[in-house]
Specification:
Blueprint: E1 2-9, E2 13-19, E3 25-32, E4 44-45, H1 47-67, E5 71-79, E6 85-87, E7 97-98, H2 106-114, H3 118-125, H4 134-144, H5 146-151, E8 154-156, H6 158-166, E9 172-174, H7 175-178, H8 193-199, E10 208-210, E11 215-216, H9 221-227, E12 235-240, H10 241-248, E13 256-261, E14 265-271, E15 283-288, E16 291-298, H11 303-311, H12 320-335, E17 345-347, E18 365-367, H13 375-399, E19 406-410, H14 417-427, E20 431-433, H15 439-451, H16 461-464, H17 475-505
Parallel strand pairs: 1-5, 5-12, 9-10, 13-19, 19-20
Antiparallel strand pairs: 1-2, 2-3, 4-7, 6-8, 11-12, 13-14, 14-16, 15-16, 17-18
Length: 514
């Protein structure tokens, strides 16, 4: 079969999949790397390791394809959003890559909200004003070290690094990744003048923005040699991981939402053009000219159960398959607790939170804790808290006039029936689980097939992608979650000042400047 490689460069691993026009994943390779957290608020990657991992994963999946007599006819790229890395004119990194999770710019996001500039920036760029965005990372760097900001030849992200590693040439990125920087006008198609002024960078320090279907002519000679591919193999610039997850799960038609539920989570729908929530709860990122993705990301997903395994069970130092087994055991225990966790409410903001509030400084909390509550109650309440947060994103869809009738879910957490049942009840919608867990890499491959002319209509992906029968929401649980969801909002709002004060009293060594 003729196949396209979907190469997905993420926060902790690069995954490569091969897929043909039937929409099935034929081969999968994953190459991991560590996320560095040298101090509170930091979240960095070694950019050289990330670039090397792209070549390693590509070489390995091409070997697997040859073994089954498949022919690789193209490569299509997916990249994690919101990264920032200094680069020279040839695309070589000049420092660490700050990931979406790096929170050192939180104060600058608060300042833009306080001075009234945040709504306009969100409206024009589609990116919420939050520490995750390169706009804010650059603004923080400008305050810390303006000379360095001005002297760096280029600023890029994950996509620019991978393109430089595989293809070389002038610095380029795709419209999807550009639309997630907070610097790019989603309606004008140019770098936004006010955003550039806030960030303190010039447009010529950023890459040229190309359509997500743009085809770059071939590979660097050393990459062709390492992978065994012809040097003229087409390289589709591709898109960002978030929007490609919708494509890879077949959630590209109206009223079909995608939920990604792995370590973190997100809920997204596809619309035909740039659409920004007037209340500024949702992002809007590009997929293609007539497919734009609106949604909200939450920082905490399956990570809350992994935390529970470390804090409430014997999970300290347990990794890999043993950690997965422990997580599954805790979820099995929690499934024995009725919906509502016996009156226990969890704000699962262990890693802060993004949608729908995009507020800095949130921490986790249990509300309503009583003596009779035990570990299963705490675990179930944490799962419910994550699903309720995604339901708040769904509520923002409704308020913005974006109806949802069906949910397609992917990610490691949806292997658990408790997660899927709780998600269906919190959203009060049927949930179908994707057959393949590699939605983002598959989405990249499908976009590559589209760019190369083998998949003329992206909407065909809805029929191509295999999903389970729907898990229907339990009516009693759905009603209970509907009644308790306002308590999540009220609790988060009421505790905001308390959590901010706790942050100020924290004696953990403070983060260093960017």
């Amino acid at each position: 079969m003729d196949v396209v490689v979907g190469l997905d460069s993420g926060t902790t691993a690069t995954k490569a999949v091969t897929a043909g026009v039937d929409g099935r994943v034929r081969d999968l390779v994953s190459v991991g790397y560590p996320l560095s957290v040298p101090a509170p608020g930091h979240a960095e990657l070694d950019p050289a390791r990330l670039a090397d991992a792209a070549v390693e994963a590509l070489a390995a999946v091409c070997t697997a394809a040859r073994e089954r007599d498949d022919r690789v006819v193209g490569i299509s790229l997916s990249a994690a959003m919101h990264g920032l890395v200094p680069m020279d004119d040839d695309g070589r990194p000049l420092g660490p890559l700050l990931t979406w999770a790096d929170a050192r710019a939180a104060g600058f996001a608060d300042a833009l909200r306080a001075d009234g500039r945040a709504p306009g920036l969100h409206e024009r760029t589609g990116t919420p004003v939050h520490a995750m965005a390169p706009l804010l990372k650059l603004a923080a760097l400008r305050a810390d070290d303006p000379d360095r900001l001005a002297s760096v030849p280029r600023w890029g992200g994950v996509k620019e690094l991978v393109v430089a590693a595989l293809h070389g040439g002038p610095q380029v990125l795709d419209r999807a990744c550009a639309s997630a920087t907070g610097l790019y006008g989603i309606r004008t198609g140019t770098w936004d003048a006010e955003a550039l002024q806030v960030a303190g960078v010039r447009a010529d320090q950023l890459g040229e923005v190309l359509p997500t279907t743009a085809v770059l002519p071939g590979l660097r000679p050393e990459v062709a040699a390492a992978t065994g591919l012809p040097a003229d193999t087409p390289l589709v610039i591709g898109a960002s991981d978030g929007v490609l997850a919708n494509l890879g799960i077949g959630a590209v038609r109206p009223e079909v939402a995608a939920v990604s539920l792995g370590t973190s989570g997100a809920m997204r729908v596809v619309v035909p053009g740039p659409t920004v929530d007037p209340a500024h709860r949702l992002f809007c990122y590009a997929l293609t000219d007539d497919h734009w993705v609106v949604g909200g990301a939450v920082n905490n997903g399956g990570s809350v159960v992994r935390w529970a395994a470390q804090a409430l069970a014997e999970g300290d130092g347990v990794t890999g398959e043993a950690a997965d087994v422990l997580d599954a055991r805790l979820l099995e225990e929690a499934a024995g607790v009725p919906a509502g966790s016996a009156g226990l409410l969890c704000l699962p903001y262990l890693l802060g939170e993004r949608a729908p509030w995009w507020r800095s400084g949130l921490r986790g909390a249990y509300v309503g804790l009583r003596r009779e509550h035990r570990r299963p109650h705490l675990v179930r309440a944490a799962v419910e808290g994550v699903c309720q947060q995604l339901a708040l994103v769904r509520d923002a869809f409704s308020a913005t006039g974006l109806p949802v009738a069906e949910v397609r879910a992917t990610g490691g957490a949806v292997a658990s029936s408790l997660w899927v049942q709780t998600l269906a009840a919190a959203l009060d919608l049927p949930v179908r689980v994707a057959d393949s867990p590699e939605g983002t890499g598959l989405g990249a491959a499908l976009l590559g097939l589209h760019a190369l002319g083998a998949l003329p209509d992206l909407d065909e992906a809805t029929a191509l992608i295999g999903v389970s029968d729907p898990v229907e929401p339990d009516p009693a649980a759905a009603e209970l979650y509907r009644r308790t969801r306002p308590l999540v909002e009220r609790s988060a709002s009421a505790l905001a000042d308390v959590l901010t004060t706790l942050d100020s009293l924290d004696d953990t060594p403070s983060a260093t400047p960017l």
